[in-house]
């Protein structure tokens, strides 16, 4: 009985410690105003692009890892072989808290892992990772928890930090995305989840966040999700630094691959230019429909059956982003052009509130102290109460 009692007390103490650590001992932030982009000139991430030299990439795939505790089937070699056969220049394996190094001698090798083991699937992808950040908050995370994880991941200065599948289990809510900073990209489209509302919310709140599209592959053997979504990256070489810089600076777009699509010939962007306030776009293939989207995902204009188009932007909209849909089911999603005031991407604009942080910590420590006193009083040495003899018996 005594052993069982001690196990239950230890378990409850452990859970209480995790709750207090997550909700009371961490940093509290104050978030900057949620302002849309401002400025007179349009910033265009694609301005320097004039050749269709895109690298096809997938940055999110899992294989068998951690003795099968995590969801992943097939070996690293099988995953890499499968992506090689589909014309991918870049294929990062991103197991949970584990960096795959099997391709480290190849060009376009990206060391990566998926961060997060919490119940609400608030996950981040760390691309170009040099080390693993092990901590996480396991219960549903507050926006302060999420901001402090992003701040910790940012300590690796070369890494590209991506919010993974934000709409899945509401890992990131729309309210979170209005204020969170400190990440470069969002996995807006994957075979597991689409998060356009989340992306448009972040963009409409003035966050310079670029798109990534991934398979989020978990089973290479069944091929489920394999080759369905990719990111096309415009980098001068296949060196890791060039690929990471291209992602950080928005020289990429996401593609959903239609069933009839030749995987070696995904439609590409030939050019997207801004001259004064005129935006012109040229694609390699004729699209069935091209949509121009503005704040909060509003459809602003659409064009049918064309390969090239241009439109005039004006400051009534903060950004314009383009989607191109093809007859075979393939859809391309481009990063926006936006009126800019020069905020660099991934700058953390939230600041720690020291007084609120220390108040919360003091409350947390009081809760822990109260629990320890209660345990000592009820069941500690010298206490007259045994297991099962409660207040009722005493008060008789
Ligand atoms: Zn995930």
Automatic annotation (TrEMBL):
Keywords for the protein's UniProt record, in alphabetical order: Membrane, Transmembrane, Transmembrane helix
Residue ranges of the TM segments: 7-25, 358-375
Transmembrane helix recorded as keyword: yes
Name listed for the protein in its UniProt record: Polymerase/histidinol phosphatase N-terminal domain-containing protein
Organism: Dyadobacter jejuensis
